[in-house]
Amino acid sequence: MTKIQLVTNAIINQGLLPLYYNADETVTLDILKALYRAGIRAVEYTSRGEFALSNFTKMVELRNEEMPEMLLGIGTIKNLKQAEEYEKAGADFFISPGFVPEVAEFLLSKHLLYSPGCMTPTEIITAEAAGVTFIKLFPGNALGAGFMSAIKDVFPNLKFMPTGGVDTTKESIESWFNAGVSAVGMGSKLVSKELMAAKDYATIESETVKVLEIIKSIKAS
């Protein structure tokens, strides 16, 4: 099995990709532990602050020591330099807010999953032509599940995941899965700034378990 297929399967199997960033290294690692305890085996860390790369490097070290089956992805990749830095740091997959051709070329040459953010059929076609197989619908709250329903038959060979605006409720999650997505990305609705500030890892864990159970029940119905 290829690395791209391994990551794709992991995200689809859990149906959820949690994403977060925290400047504090200890908080970053403790959140990762909480997500792991909840059953998460693929997570996205967003490269949105000056400590992102050093924190991510520590996440890789922790994963290698304590959670070998965890796949660590990096998000908000906007240029080739970032992609190269995080590839060197050991990222398993890469996510962008938009499609970056040189990033796609670099990562696919390394046989690593690249999931760019797209919000038009033209962007999706461009990404697919470059070899991308996993599309991030972004921003999900602006597009809505109706957009996914309208385009899914046009792109039968692609996997889709909305990020932005997906709530932790069954109604919100179910609307997207019914529309045809393979997973949902969740950031502040799951790992909120308030929970991070309070270092409330127990609630992050329990909320993640709850969302995983909702997704499992949706898939089974």
- Percentage of helical residues? 40-55%
Report Rg: 16 Å
Task: Let me know the largest β-sheet.
Answer: 8 strands, parallel
In the sheet with the most strands, the strands line up as 7-6-5-4-3-2-1-8
Order of helices and strands: HEHEHEHEHEHEHHEHEHH
Low-confidence stretches at least 5 residues in length (pLDDT < 50)?
A: none
Mean pLDDT level? 97
Total of DSSP H or I helical runs spanning 4+ residues: 11
How far apart, in Å, are the first and last alpha carbons? 29 Å
Anisotropy-based shape: globular
Structural class: alpha/beta
Strand residue percentage = 15-25%
Quick one: how many beta strands? 8
Pathway: Carbohydrate acid metabolism
Keywords: Carbohydrate metabolism, Lyase
Subunit structure: Homotrimer.
Protein name: Bifunctional 4-hydroxy-2-oxoglutarate aldolase/2-dehydro-3-deoxy-phosphogluconate aldolase
